[in-house]
Each structure stands twice: as C-alpha cells, then as structure tokens.
Design brief:
- This protein is mostly helical.
- The protein is built from 11 helices and 5 strands; from the N terminus they run H-H-H-H-H-H-H-H-H-E-E-H-H-E-E-E.
- It has a 3-stranded mixed beta sheet with strand order 3-5-4.
- 38% of the residues are buried.
C-alpha cells in the first residue's frame, strides 16, 4: 500500500538524502515531511494551542497553576491529541493494507509499505518532540520517561532502514491506553479525584493498559524476536532480482530461499542481512519499553487503589491510627522532592494530593505524596 498522505515537497527528499545515506535509512527521505510535520504540529499544540484552549475552558484552574504544573498539563494535552490521531491511523492501516497479509518472516523483517512508513514517520516525529521535551525537563518527568523517548525513537526510526517496518502500526497500538491515562491525570487537576468518573476511567485504563501493552505488546514482541532470530540464522544475503513487470508497474522479484516471488514490498530490501548490532539495538530498546510498561502497570494499580480507599482508612494509614480532630487551620506539608503550589496542590507529573487530618493540637494537616505515574507513549 502506497503512502496515502501528501507527497513531500520536491526539495525535501534531496535535502535529507545525505542524512539517510549516513544513517543507512533509505526510506527516510520519503517520510521526512511527515516527521517534520508531526514535530511542528505537536510543538504548536504544546506551546500555543494548549495554553490558549486550557485557559478558555478552565479559567479558574489553568491560569493559577505553577509553571512546572503547566508544563505537565500542556504535555498531557499533546499526549492526548497524539494518541487519538496515531491510534486512528494505525488501526486504519491494519485494516486496509492488504499487503501485510502477504508477508512471510522475510517481508516482516525487510519489507516496506508506504502506509507503514507513514505511521513510522508520524510516530518518529512525535517521539523526536518527546525526546526534546523530556531532555529539557528531566526534573519534571524523570529519567524513566527520557529512556522511553530514546527507545521509542530508535525503534521507529529503524523502520526506515527498512527493518521490521511491518511492526510499526502494531507497536504504536501501545497508545490505545494513553487517552485514559491522560484523562486520569486531568481528573486530579480538575479536583475530581475519587469521583465516579475517575473510577470508571481508571477501570478502563487498567483494562486497556493491560490488554494493549502487556498482552498484545508482549505477544508482538515475541513475534518480532522470532522473526529477527530467523533472519540472524539465515546465512548469506537477501538478493532481489527483477523477474517480471506488470501493467500496473509492479516489480516482482525472488529472494534466495523464498518459495514465492515477492512484490514491491521488497523494493528497498536490496542485499540484506541483519547485523548483530542492529538486532541487539532494536531488541534492547523493545525490552526497555516492555520493562517500563510492566513497572508502570504495577504503579498504576497502587495509585488507583489509593484513590478510592475510604477517607478514614487513608487518614489512619498516614496518621498511624490517630483519630482526627475537626476544625482548626490546615497545615500543608510535603515529602522529599515535593513542591506545594499556592492552591495547596502538588507540582510535578503524576502527583497525588492526599488529605490527612492529624495532630494532637487539633490542626488539620494536608500531607502530599508523589505516587502517580504518567505515560505518554
């Protein structure tokens, strides 16, 4: 299937060709415009559209947020927009790209379709933007999200080699859980923590995260490991030779060891082997992503459970079983690395505000704890 998106301007493939040659990414010039468009679009959403729309929709909340929390808010808006767009495109490609069903392991490792390249381009543009934002705000998002941005960018960029281009739309479906994760975060900031809406959203979040990241993602990772292992075990090179040309312009060829001629999906294959460094880089990045997903799922379960514990139970856990006195002023405290905003909420990503009324003198104490997890990919 050809790339259904707009063709790149004539100058851009020529401009990016030297970089493609340097990195051995022959299909990069075909999708450079999609990378640049995605990067620019998400940067505009982050710096212009999100502040404008958030101020209009939530005039009593967004303008009062600290700069650190605004950074977090705007990035969540970008994540929400990106996940909705890329999920729609990926599901559409999986549904209509019939060439995918014709691929054996050789096609899945070395094959290329324009539609798959489009998904790789838009995903790479987002993760390039994500890498920029994460590296500029490590103190806000942490090293885990920076590692995720690097790994995701590497995985999707290698599709331009082309290398396992087939799995681009497959792995991007990790993002199916991201809208619900972003909604969960926004419920906290909109003072809806513990609400029925957050409960229902939290259940859907856990279900989609477990299904698309842990079950689907692990299964597809095993498949790609199997395909790459088969490529590593196949001696010699992949040789593409023209055997026929149809009226539709399709060029067919044969692959050494293949049982059937192959179509244009192998036009960029050339002579291919899988170097050990390439297999290790791709599979290593994939393992990092899967490990983070399992870790974050455990943290998400803890967070959702704490959200919906009875207030008295949470209060006793924090106060060591002391009863709470009513009335009196509220004292605001924070744990290590916790910053308290003027409105009494926490700064930083994935922060949960827990209200614990303690103190023998009758004062109410607002204890703040970092316990949530934010995932954008």
């Amino acid at each position: 299937m050809l790339d259904p998106f707009l063709s790149p301007p004539a100058f851009l493939p020529k401009l990016t060709q030297p970089l493609a040659d340097l990195l051995a990414l022959p299909t990069l010039p075909l999708h450079a415009h999609e990378i640049l468009l995605a990067f620019t679009f998400y940067h505009i959403v982050n710096t212009r559209l999100s502040p404008l729309l958030s101020t209009y929709l939530f005039p009593s909340i967004y303008p009062k947020l600290n700069r650190r929390t605004k950074i977090n808010w705007d990035v969540h808006v970008v994540s929400l927009v990106q996940s909705c767009l890329i999920n729609t495109l990926a599901l559409w490609v999986l549904w209509v790209d019939e060439e995918r069903t014709e691929m054996n392991w050789r096609g899945r490792v070395w094959g290329y379709t324009g539609a798959g390249g489009m998904i790789q381009g838009f995903a790479a543009g987002y993760f390039l933007w994500d890498l920029m934002v994460s590296s500029m705000n490590v103190g806000v998002f942490g090293w885990g999200l920076l590692a995720h941005a690097v790994s995701a960018l590497v995985v999707f960029s290698l599709g331009f080699r082309p290398f396992v281009n087939f799995y681009g739309p497959t792995f991007i479906l990790y993002e199916l859980s991201s809208p619900f994760l972003n909604f969960h975060w926004f419920f906290d900031k909109l003072h809806m923590t513990g609400s029925r809406a957050q409960l229902y959203n939290g259940l859907v979040l856990l279900f989609t995260f477990f299904g698309c990241r842990l079950v689907w993602g692990t299964y597809q990772s095993l498949r790609v490991y199997q395909d790459v292992w088969a490529a590593l075990q196949t001696p010699g090179t992949l040789v593409l030779t023209t055997t026929s040309g149809g009226n539709d312009g399709t060029v067919k060829g044969v692959v050494e060891g293949a049982e059937e001629p192959i179509s244009e999906i192998m036009k960029y294959a050339g002579e291919k082997v899988v170097p050990v460094w390439l297999a290790c880089t791709y599979l290593g990045s994939n393992i990092v992503l899967n490990t983070l997903n399992f870790y974050w799922f455990g943290k998400m379960i803890e967070t959702v459970k704490k959200r919906f514990k009875p207030p008295q139970e949470r209060s006793k856990e924090r106060s060591g079983g002391k009863e709470v006195a009513d009335g009196g002023p509220v004292e605001v405290t924070g744990g290590p690395g916790i910053v308290v905003e003027e409105d009494g909420s926490l700064l930083g990503d994935g922060i949960v505000v827990e209200r614990t009324e303690v103190g023998d003198d009758g004062r109410k104490v607002l204890t703040l704890e970092q316990e949530d997890v934010r995932r954008r990919r």
